[in-house]
Design goal:
By secondary structure, this protein is an alpha/beta fold. The protein contains 5 helices and 8 strands. Strands 1-5-4-7-3-8 form a 6-stranded mixed sheet, sandwiched between helices. Strands 2-6 form a two-stranded antiparallel ribbon. The radius of gyration is 24 Å and the shape is globular. The N terminus is likely disordered.
């Protein structure tokens, strides 16, 4: 035999009626508890790398980031983002800058370790910025790319207390043990550092 269910109390009925009267617009969004990833650079777009392609840094670590490493993708902007999002590639950078308009995508938080330098010590102590293009095609190094990248580098240097000089803003080819040549002979270092200094 089925047990009789207790009747709802007057208090419970009033609570239910009050909740039913609350407009849906005042209720929290279903995604309110979901964590939306904020970018470190205000004008960047969040385009996350796959978590298999970088190392999440422990919050308590006192890792010192004291340089910015400049890269050239040797691929298009879109292809580079796809590579970073492919869990089998084991590569990423913190940022990618598009050639045509200087648009910046952030792929890894600055507090995490992107796999961009090919040298663990340099990965852990640097922020990597990829630039769309090829080392032997200088037309990809547009004015707007230089300007937006320099503004990004200047902001990173300010946030991290990194000196704005060639000892601390280096090319991938300067990382010990690398076989890479980027950003290559067509990258205008003097111009870039002037822009970083002025930003």
């Amino acid at each position: 035999m089925e047990r009789a269910r207790p009747l709802p109390t007057r208090r419970r009925l009033l609570k239910g009626a009050a909740l039913a009267a609350v407009p849906y617009a005042l209720l929290p969004d279903a995604r309110a508890g979901a964590r939306v990833q904020a970018v470190d650079h205000p004008s960047a777009e969040w385009q996350p790398a796959n978590s298999s392609n970088y190392t999440t840094a422990e919050p308590a670590t006192d890792r010192v980031v004291d340089r910015v490493i400049i890269h050239v993708t040797q691929a298009t902007f879109t292809t580079t983002l796809s590579i970073f999002q492919n869990p089998k590639k084991e590569v990423s950078a913190h940022y990618v800058v598009r050639s045509a308009d200087g648009h910046v995508a952030q792929c890894v938080r600055e507090s995490d370790i992107a796999w961009h330098a090919g040298n663990w010590e340099y990965n852990t102590s640097s922020i990597g910025i990829e630039h769309e293009g090829w080392v032997d095609r200088p037309a990809y190094f547009t004015d707007v790319m230089y300007e937006e990248s320099a503004a990004l580098t200047a902001a990173i240097c300010t946030r991290r207390g990194i000196p704005r000089d060639r000892a601390h803003i280096i090319g991938h080819h300067e990382v010990p043990g690398t076989d890479h040549t980027d950003p290559g002979p067509n990258w205008d270092w003097a111009r870039y550092l002037r822009l970083v200094e002025r930003a």
